Amino acid sequence: MAPTRWPLPLLLFFLLSGAATATEDASPSNPPPSPTPWPERFHAVLFTNLTNYSSASTGPPLRITDLYYDWPRRRNLNLVRHQLSADPLYDVEWDNGTSFYFDSSTCRVQRFPVGVLPPWWLSGGGAEYVGREVTGGIECHVWGKAGFIVYYEEAATGRPVRWNFIDVTGIQQFVMSFEPGVALEDAQWQAPAHCFPDDGSEEDGNDQGKSNDDVASSSKEEVGVVMLEAASRVLRKLAGAAAAS
Ligand SMILES: *[C@@H]1O[C@H](CO)[C@@H](O)[C@H](O)[C@H]1NC(C)=O
Ligand SMILES: *[C@@H]1O[C@H](CO)[C@@H](O)[C@H](O)[C@H]1NC(C)=O
Ligand SMILES: *[C@@H]1O[C@H](CO)[C@@H](O)[C@H](O)[C@H]1NC(C)=O
Questions:
Q1: 144 CA distance to ligand 2 centroid (A)?
Q2: 205 CA distance to ligand 3 centroid (A)?
Q3: Using CA atoms, how far apart are residues 86 and 107, in angstroms rounded to an integer?
Q4: Which of 15, 35, 53, 228 could form a disulfide with 123 if both were Cys (CB 3.0 to 4.6 A apart)?
């Protein structure tokens, strides 16, 4: 078999473009891009899909979440609306590790050993560059961190686009809007009276009758709260990883 004869200009083109690619990949003057730190305050609307829904839980897998991140005040709020549910769930997280999960009638208080994620939780170290990928039609840089998360950032602007938690629930969140600098007024962060029972007993309240890690509860409210906790638990884990890195 005669070897294929490449026209010289085409062969040169291949050699040159191959060389150019190699240079781009290997040159120390082209290190992988770094993630953009989060702004100190922002409001984001997230579309959430618990993609491992069928095996991981019994609640509704699709949600719209308003996320208010407020680093100067060291607090984080998720306002979660499950599909076709009238009663939104709130998750107010404080830097002292206390989280309040409540809707119009139920409340649960949970303690975590870590506080709110700092703006540099990803940019400050430990992120592994995965490469470029188009998601939702948006050209992104992608990083992974600590086996917890895969994070997509718009290549052109540095805005967050999407993150997938590496978790049995398979939580994926898609950033539908992102408004740096937008803050929620103080009154909106206050947990309601039914989070503070009159009897002054400890916060895990016996009347709810559930221990912190009991996922085997069956009432609708409990299921909703458990589902809400899934995302916030991984975020808290991430906060721990960020603090340790
Ligand atoms: C949610 O994730 C599941 C599992 O990957 C997928 O089949 C489904 O289409 C997704 N739903 C939406 C609305 O994106
Ligand atoms: C943490 O801070 C919040 C908001 O100020 C407060 O309601 C909660 O009681 C605090 N938790 C602890 C354990 O101090
Ligand atoms: C989905 O959930 C099941 C049950 O919790 C778990 O065994 C499985 O590993 C999960 N799948 C993924 C991809 O995490």
A1: 32
A2: 31
A3: 17
A4: 35
Q: Is 45 exposed, middle or buried (0-12, 13-18, 19+ CB in 10 A)?
A: middle
Residue type, 139: E
Query: Which neighbouring-strand residues pair with 78?
Result: 67, 91
Segment holding 242, helix H or strand E: helix 220-244
From 52, 148, 164, 172, mutation site for ligand 3 pocket: most ligand atoms within 8 A of C-beta:
52
Give the distance (Å) from ligand 2 centre to CA of residue 94. 7
Supply 189's token pair.
């962060």
Pocket of ligand 3 contains residue 52 by CB under 6 Å: yes
Distance 48 CA to ligand 1 centre (A): 10
- DSSP string covering 88-153: -EEEEEETTSEEEEE-SS-EEEEE-SS-PPPTTTTTTS-EEEEEEEEETTEEEEEEEETTTEEEEE
- Fill in the amino acid letter for 179: E
User: Rounded mean pLDDT of 182-198?
Assistant: 94
126 pLDDT exceeds 90?
yes
Provide the whole-model pTM.
0.78
Measured by CA distance, the residue closest to atom 13 of ligand 3 is 168
For residue 44, the SS3 value is: strand
Q: Distances from the Cα of 237 to the Cαs of 48, 140, 230, 232, in angstroms?
A: 19, 25, 11, 8
Give ligand 2 pocket residues (Cβ under 6 A).
94, 96, 98
